[in-house]
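As a warm-up, study this chain.
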Amino acid sequence: MTTFDKANAALEDRNWSAAKVDTQPRKATVVHSVRMSRDLTERLLTEAERRGITPSEVIRDLVDAGLTTAERSTTVRLADVHRAIDSLTQKTA
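Now compare it with the structure written out below.
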């Protein structure tokens, strides 16, 4: 049985009769629909299980980390990189 199948089975067997209502206000959230391959979904479920959190939390963590990295990075044209390297090599020669 795959992780995906286990997750489906767990949801079907869940008993919600003892569930407690959360009365604390929460921040508004937005749902983004994404299509993923079954392999990627299984990897996501495996990672969520490893961390002991939900797949949604894993996705949020990964998106946040990726966007944070993108905000700190700078896009440089390849021609500018070549120019900088050429300039440095001419100074040392």
